Amino acid sequence: MQPLIDYARTFGRRPEEFARLAEGQSPEVLFITCSDSRVVPALITGARPGELFELRTAGNIVPPHTSEHPTSEAATIEYAVEVLGVRDIVVCGHSHCGAVGALVRGDDLTAVPAVRDWLAHAAPRPAGAAEDPEVAEGVQCHALTQLLRLRSYPCVERRTAEGTLALHAWYYEVHTGAVRAHRSDTDTFEAL
């Protein structure tokens, strides 16, 4: 913890670099990814403060849309699309994902009931080889499922129909730093 504290103490000593951020934000991209500490959206994309609107959840899960029981994830998506007017949404899964790995392997999660119940939102169970530590196939399948789930959100459905919002599925390899994007014409994940 001490290195983080030491850095935070010096971080605010350059106020001129941050003054413009007080004027508001206008990110073009909503970046939905896992809360895994190895996945750092700004590092992956090179984004500066104010350029990405981030939604991080265990397993980059987008819960089903329901107006009866709104979630913080739904509120974040709606705010990004309706208020900030993002033009793109990226759902970025990653290799070695513990959440997707647990789903692929069918792990017993009774000791962590909140995790178990949250991962139930990922259904259907992602495909993939249980013995693959990267869980590449499972993560890629899961990212596409979450992208489809996004389409059920009324604001996303409307904006994609208007052609003012594009959806993207990415796969990030934590062990190499490579990023692959899904291509719908070939139904494959290929290097950016």
Sheet with the most strands: spatial strand order: 2-1-3-4-5-6
SS summary, helix count: 8
By CATH's scheme, which homologous superfamily applies?
Carbonic anhydrase
CATH topology: Beta-carbonic Anhydrase, Chain A
Q: Helical residue percent? A: 25-40%
Shape: globular
Q: How large is the share of residues in beta strands?
A: 15-25%
Structurally, how many domains make up the residues?
1
State the distance separating the first and last CA atoms.
Answer: 35 Å
User: What is the tally of beta strands?
Assistant: 6
Q: Largest beta sheet, briefly?
A: 6 strands, mixed
What is the mean predicted local confidence, pLDDT? 92
Overview of the molecule:
The protein is of the alpha/beta class and 192 residues long. The protein has helices at 2-11, 15-18, 41-45, 72-83, 98-105, 113-119, 136-150, 154-162; strands at residues 29-34, 52-57, 88-94, 166-172, 179-183, 188-191. It starts with a helix and ends with a strand.
